[in-house]
Amino acid sequence: MTSPTQNRIGIDLGGTNMKLGRVEDGRVVERFEIPTEHDGDVCLASLVEHIKKLSPDGAPAQIGVGLPGVIDLNRSRVIDAPNLTFLVDLPLADLLSEACACPVILENDANVAALGEARCGAGQNHPDFLFVTLGTGVGGGLIFDSSLFHGPGGMAGEFGHLTVGHDRLCGCGALGCLEAIASARAMETLAAQSLGRPLPLKELADAARQGDQDALAVFHTAGACLGDALAQVTLLLDLRVFIFGGGGGPVLDLLRKPALLVLQQRCFGRTMDDFQLLSAELGNDAGLLGAAYLGEA
Question: What is the pLDDT of residue 296?
Fold first, then answer.
């Protein structure tokens, strides 16, 4: 295990851009953001080049990589990643470790964001919570006893694919997933249908806060479905703290009340005051910080 003061590298590897940062004492002290090259060899070479720029005095203590995909149980290889297909079955961790002379761990991006909030953000005082990302989809990461929980097959925390009682088709091919009604993209789709015109989420939220009833109805619908999914988690795991990040995180104020009402209705003997729906604190740095701390997860 590395010391908190040692030089760690965190990488947030997305389909469009890669963010790399050197983390010391819980802070990103130097960073790069570069385009993601969708070729295994080119991507690897670019990562190695920038890792060495971040570690001019020698090999880092460790490197953690968060990416949107399913990772093998050894945290060393990508099994499935729709937006990063060129990485599937590439021994990325081994190749990076050999090139940079240090341990490398891979992890799902929602999980590293959850770990980042647990170590350095809104979860520091909450040993048990569900981290929820509201973006193009809905993701999740489970923190138990201040540590990341994967489950035996690495599927723990797939919050966005809980069924919440609607008939919309999800991108995964199933009907009724939370992601199909409460992701940032889904809320924009609901708005286009109810308002008759496309509206970015920020503008939709501004309209709702100004009292537009059609805009408020979108957040009420999404929030109630969110509450249904949170209730399922609560009934199974008795979690009380939920931390929200991603592009949809800033609209939590509009989702909170309908979600809490459903939580109260579904969870026996509980009231809204028993639950905390919190905003993430780290923004785009959650992935970098969480990736840097994977060796302690």
Answer: 74
For 161, the token pair is 């694919």
Question: If pLDDT is split at 50, 70 and 90, which confidence band does 4 have?
Answer: very low
Q: Does the pLDDT value for residue 289 go beyond 60?
A: yes
CA distance 169 to 167: 7
Q: What is the pLDDT of residues 95-145, one digit of tens each?
A: 999 999 999 999 999 999 999 999 999 999 999 999 999 988 899 999 999
Domains of the chain: 8-113+285-296 (3.30.420.40), 125-279 (3.30.420.40)
- Predicted model pTM: 0.90
What pLDDT does residue 1 have? 47
Interhelix angle 201-209/252-266, rounded to 10 degrees, is: 70
pLDDT at 297: 53
Place of tokens 């890669």: 18
DSSP string of the chain, one letter each residue = ---TTS-EEEEEE-SSEEEEEEEETTEEEEEEEEEPPSSHHHHHHHHHHHHHHH-TTS--SEEEEEESSEE-TTSSSEEE-TT-GGGBT--HHHHHHHHHTS-EEEEEHHHHHHHHHHHHSTTTT-SSEEEEEESSSEEEEEEETTEEE--TTS-TT-GGGSB-S--PBPTTS-BSBTHHHHSHHHHHHHHHHHHSS---HHHHHHHHHTT-HHHHHHHHHHHHHHHHHHHHHHHHH---EEEEESTTGGGHHHHHHHHHHHHHHHSTT--GGG-EEEE-SSTTHHHHHHHHTGGG-
Mean pLDDT, the chain, as a whole number?
92
Please classify residue 257 by burial: count the beta carbons closer than 10 Å to its beta carbon, then call 0-12 exposed, 13-18 middle and 19+ buried.
middle
